[in-house]
Amino acid sequence: MIFIVGIMTLTIVGLIGLGVYLELSPEKHVARPQRARNWLLGNLSVFGLALLALLAMGAQEVMAQTTETVARVEVTTGLGLAIIGIGLPTGLAAIGAALALGPVGSAALAVVAEKPEMFGRTLIYLGLAEGIAIYGLVMSILLLGKI
Length: 147
Fold this sequence. Notes:
Layout: H1 2-24, H2 33-64, H3 77-114, H4 119-144
Helix pairs in contact: 1-2, 3-4
């Protein structure tokens, strides 16, 4: 099964590599788009076949397991409320980041359309807005350690 996951990883890396290669040298491939299309279709078909094989092997492995009795952990009301409280910072921070990224992203696109040299600065503003969600995730991880 690890072999199949490795094949899937290599197809994804190959797909990313093809995209970077075509992005860096588009003038070479204007006359030969069929070669890139064949590469892409071959890569995606290998990925799909590996995914189907992984699903089949995973289902076989799950059905081959024997049933065991597992000790159940009782979830109390306090523990349930604590878990909800831990999830709230991430959810609310993600909503806040979404509200911040909407206007900042549209303004960044407008600026880059008029002045392409401002692209780097607009990425900084987008990163600052996305940082809100990361802070919420960090807070949830810190609170999870307190349970």
